[in-house]
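Researcher: Please translate sequence to structure tokens.
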Amino acid sequence: MRNRERERELRLLDELKQAEIANVVTRGLNPDVPMRDTNIPWLDKVPAHWEEKRAKYLFIKQNRPVREEDEVITCFRDGQVTLRKNRRTEGFTESFKEIGYQGIRKGDLVIHQMDAFAGSSGVSDSDGKSTPVYIVCTPAYEYIYIPYFALVFRRMGLNGFIQSLYRGIRERSSNFSYDVFCNQILPIPPIEEQKAIVEYIQQKNAAIDEMIANLRAEIDFLIEYKQRLIADVVTGQLKVD
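Model: Translation complete:
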């Protein structure tokens, strides 16, 4: 029973985390700011002082050559973009011929075209290389803060908008191509507000992640305790009246 309660608490914490991110990314940090209607299909209102532009005017698509020392980078569904070896290698198909591979640099915006609907968008924390199925971009202007827009694209995936662009394609699949990416209208807070939003989310996430880690540790302990108790009963080390 306690185990089920802890699992429920885990789900609630994750929902709280996602709801807070969605609210702050699209509405900012000031709850009293005047709002206005938008031309953004997945977002009805934004703060009145925010701008809107299509992605093609905000980012520069990169297609760098691969260097000999570059290792494979993976864009995961939780938004982390890192060297594959930093997370895991199981479950991936290794390419003998890296046809079309491209260079990635630390700080790039990286979006997995086939998994963008599930949140596979983020900022690379490493230099490396990837398959051409990734969209790799740098900012076109100084007022574009990549960590903020990585959160925006994750929100577009997790709220179902990216999937909605591909009705008729098999369920839970999409191809968020660069052409489609370019056509998306995005909210643009002032650069200092973009940075403040990202900092707030990082601090909030750290606190929630700590609670989640503590709950997971308690769940693991309860599972281990239950298994040990069953083993003791079966082997006769524990008498049951």
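Researcher: Any highlights?
Model: The helical segments are 2-27, 146-158, 161-164, 178-183, 191-234.
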